Amino acid sequence: MTGGNMGYTGADGLGPLETLGHIVINLPAEQRIFLTGQLSALTLAFLFRWHLPTSQCGPILRHSIASLLGICLSIYCFGWLTLFLIGELVLGYLLLLLADYRRVHVYTLFLTMGYLTLFHIQRYLYPAQDQMDFTVPLMMLTQKISRVAFEFHDGHIQTEKPLSPLQRRLAIRTMPSTLSYVSYTLGFLGLLAGPVCSYNDYQIFIHGNEKTGNPNVAVSRKLSLCCLLLAAHLVLSDRFSVSEDPDRSVFSQYLDLYLMAASRRPKYYFAWTLADAINNAAGFGYNGISEDGTERWDLLSNLDIVKIETATSFKMFIDNWNIQTAVWLKEVCYDRSPYNPLLSTFMLSAVWHGVHPGYYLTFLTAVPITVAARHVRRTIRPWFQGHVLNRTVYDVITWLCTQIAMSYTVGPFMLLELGLSLKLYRSLSFSLHILPILLIMVLHNTTRPQSIEKSNHTTIACKKNTNQMKKGT
């Protein structure tokens, strides 16, 4: 979901259903199409699970129906532009069939990113307010096609560097059939907002190779949360902005930035939670049993709202925001890039998001902040781990710093334009560009305090001995 104002325009005296209908009707066209499309996908997901269970239907039928519904949903949302989705799919599959498997993943990544960038440029030059952003499903498709190519490469190449356990599990050993490839890439479950899953996990779902539980409780909870998130978005959307008053204090400017960033998050929370619920409704996303005995339906979860809002480090925030995209970036770039994996990954993420200068400024800003946060955690954090009070103080301070740093970083992402973004940073004296660089210079050669490390090990050992003595008595 991008662009537009989803704010409620009023419907006094109407009942709940009438109010909901009034809200949907008065949404901008882009968001109305997205919402009705996802609600249709939710309904279809329930029907898919009820009427096409793996016990009664084979994978060919399930693949065929998922593909057909995905194409129909795409036609409803994007009309004839669906041909461009199919076009990218065909190009990706031809590469998989014809290219050297030792390089197919590289070729596919460049092809899909180039294809996506062309449409990003078209969207940038000719923005359309009366239709849903076509680059969103293209962004999902780019992840899926490139991910299949990387996992296919891992399943067919012998390298000096062994695959990680995760890479071995995700590796595709046989050529995907045309039907299964189309179902995975254009299936209705993740067409509009993801989340992107691995090809093997999708095949397990279609074939019913693993026992799953009942998703009804999980779906109900996520849909209830969606209602709250949608209400929060309607109330908070575009309510806060950065003041242009040159006399405002730095504290007020940072507060404006934080409120602006926080007020825009419910939009993403809503879209990703609803997308997760759609997959769960179809029976996809089961992830075993938790420690308390309840079923986990978080295999495809794209965020953890509590961890995001209480994040005490830049990494913790990023790791719980758009999780499946982070997994894709790690799989195709961070774990394989021979040149500065961190910078390469952030730049790939910027290109994937679009061509607006604000995206590039955001991800370039994130690089020194991430590196500085690593140094702080390595050298300063140990000093605060001795006592509960110290840890609490450290967590409060790092939470505040994380929220400030993240709000500063995503400012250009929200403003998009280079001039506005530079004006924002200039008004803050580029403070969170300069400070991280200074921290890196100061802490670069600083080592972890050995005495504190030994003390922590001694404390842990004493606790283990105490527990063993208790068990013995």
TrEMBL record:
Signal peptide: none annotated. It is a multi-pass membrane protein. It is found in: Endoplasmic reticulum membrane. Pfam families: MBOAT. One of its GO terms (cellular component) is membrane. The chain crosses the membrane at residues 64-97, 104-125, 181-202, 358-376, 396-416, 428-446. Coiled coil: none annotated. This is Membrane-bound O-acyltransferase domain-containing protein 2-like.
